[in-house]
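Minutes, project check-in

Agenda point 3 was the complex the collaborators sent over. CS summarized: two entities, 920 residues total, and the question is how they sit relative to each other. Sequences were read into the notes so everyone works from the same version.
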Amino acid sequence: MSTATAGGAAAPGRVAPAQDKNKKRKSITGTRLWVAGIFLLPALVLLGALVVYPIGYSVYRSLFDASGDGFVGLDNYREMFSDDATMTAIKNNIVWVIVAPSVATALGLIFAVLTERVRWGTAFKLVVFMPMAISMLAAGIIFRLVYEADPDRGVANAIWVSVHDTFKESPPFPGAHPRPNAGLTESSNGSFTTDATAKAGTPVSLPLVAAKRDDVSGAQDAKAAKPEAGKVTGTVWFDFTKGDRGQHNVLDKGEKALADIKIEAVKDGKVVATTTSRADGTYTLPAKADGAELRLPAWNFGQPYNGVDWLGPSLVTPAIIGSYVWIWAGFAMVLIAAGLAGVPRELLEAARMDGANEWQVFRRVTVPLLAPVLSVVVVTLMINVLKIFDLVYIIAPQTSQDEANVLALQLYQSSFGTDVNQGLGSAIAVFLLVFVAPVMFFNIRRIRRERRR
Amino acid sequence: MLTPLRRKRQKRQMGRPGQTGTKRSARAALALCSAGALLLTAAGCGTDDGEADSGSPPPVTVKLPSLKGKHLEVTAVWTGTEQKNFTKVLKEFEKRTGATVSFVPSGDDMAGFVGSKMAGGQPPDVALVGQVGVLREFAQKGWAKPVNAATKAELSKNFSKGWQELGAYKGKQYGVYFKVSNKSLIWYNTSAFEYAGAREAKTWKDFLAQAQLISDSGTDPVSVGGADGWTLTDWFENVYLSQAGPEKYDLLAQHKIKWTDPSVTRALRTLAELWGTKGLLAGGRSGALQTAFPDSVVKAFANAAQPDAAMVFEGDFAAANVSDAGAKLGSEAKVFPFPKVGETAPVVTGGDVAVALKDSEASQALLTFLASPDAAHIWAQAGGFISANKKLSLSVYPNEPLRKIAKAVIDAGDNFRFDMSDQAPASFGGKPAQGEWKALQDFLKNPKDVEGIQRQLERDAAKAYGN
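CS then shared the predicted structure for the full assembly.
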């Protein structure tokens, strides 16, 4: 875009020197220097006041302490690089700058190429571009809700959990356990095993507490199991009466049955028989279980699957990058689609005539022709990503803000507030500037090259 | 850059007849309110500004100057119900003086909000600051302006010495403690207690035993809003004040003893007896870490007959969240003092102190008004509010629990301890994801690592206090 005007402006410049060789005090375009100066003045003043001065002042300020009076040399920079929070921020910024622009551009390229071929392409483009119309702040709030950990509230986890639960049965009584004196011992993996061995013909009672009231409220009253010759029987029940009035470890009237509990009979560390408790809490194990210990596997009491902790320490940065891509993939798509419109059809046709398949056409013809556009998009996004602040500030919860930290956020945290150090903040700002510089340099060189062409 | 824009907006509002103006601002308030609710997942935005108020009109005890045409901008952390009730107080001020007052919620990070506004040269006129440490820093930097004679007179007439001194810095009076809180309370769901056969606990040991009993009955006993770091600092402070005593509490608050002190080790170990025991926290430790404070109250009171949790610890201000959740104070929701861990039960208080950031007649008049029983009356009768104002009649409070809590605060006289984290510099005790807030969240994540957390606390404290 900028390349077209730059090329146009450069053209007269090349012709000019020959005309004005003998006239002094005149510039290459033939105007007097002071006239040119006056015309440039507003731009220079604005640039100076809004760009050059703030940069210069930030560099200057970064050499002073928190109060702004004491000169500390490079101490702020030293402090910055010895601070864990800033190091995490730098690391995250690098992840951001590599991942976000490349994913957004790749998606944009795919969308652009595909929408060229469908009838409702424009409508599709409109939809993909729509998130660009939302402010980063609003998008942040939206994604904060999307990533909410509770599956009843966060749509990401709602989908994840419902997919998961269709393939896996969820545990019947999360958090339940026997009383400490109930004759069952907890092993390190969370399962409970009876201390005594079971005898056929003598019912083994397995009293549990702490099953959630919601899980128990609809259950039948528990029944005492009848002894059966040659078989191990017993009852699993919820050993709690309202107001704690019942006797502990005794099946009182009205106590609820715990159905669907898995029970294993274990002999010398090997499972010899398994069963599941019935709706009235009773269970029956075959004769093999005689003399075995009864074990309630940890699965019975595991927490129900609650999905992924999107905003937890490990996933928070990828999750926020995801929301960024949601916004900016549309931008990439629109630019690339515009570039695609300028790709000569003949080349594609020729390649097809030569027997290239669609993938080869895409890979060997379309992408190379689009390379200038792609680099514009990637570089623009890189510069945009380096200053990322709002999405991280809003989406990351307090508990994982450290892990999601980026430089711009660290800059804000250390500069504004009460006991803050604007010297340190300025040092981070200067570092951020240095960080952007190579990308800027690349961008400028690319524009120059375009101009020369 | 902002100034011309704001001035233009103001002019436009003044140029139009009042009706349109209020409608617009009401709509804006509603939008702001719902945006806030989204962000903080706080339920219960007020539907209207509540013209049909059933309460009695406030007494008129204080004389205010006429401030026709003056405009004030006031900021506080309040959103939702609290914002609605505070707006009622501001409305009364507008009515008496003729000034227009706009309320701007600052978000959780008051120090950051005011700091950036200060840097931009457009601070709000009056801020209600929740941390005494922040007030002192504002005063130290010269951002806060001392109160005038009228406010001082009102303060000495209505407040005990302890509360006045908390609003002073280096002998000068800066702040007015408009809203205070008693942060040593356990709210509980009566039906969950009844079902489990549990009773109000007087000692920490009994508290743990009751919690275990409730857990056995099938209800998670204690709901902790660990996503908000400040609830965790309040837990620690109550345990520490009761166990180590007020002298050590003051020393630690000023960072005259280190956070690696054995008394801190003991307090953290005590806390770990609750936080580290399986089945005692609602949703487990990870669940607690993902629960914001308003949600932690909802867990205990939204379904009053069969709640997800039986108890919530926090100050009296939880009353507003309890009512929002739909539970009746005094019957479905009751309160008992924080159990004593050591010799005596702790009384930790907090408070929002009003401070002028611009030295104008209007902002001084607002401080005078907030120091009077008139202003306290309006919010007190709406609920969710405790005043340390001695002249405020206790009969104004809408229910028995609140009356009890308010009486306890006033009866304590000067024998209370102010929230420790609120006395600390903001970067240690008052900012999300930093210092004490973050360290205690890490502790909730892993209650076994007492020494590691102490080192982390000491490192951050040393940096923030600069010693």
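Noted in discussion: Chain A has a mean pLDDT of 87.
Follow-up: revisit at the next meeting once the mutant set is ready.
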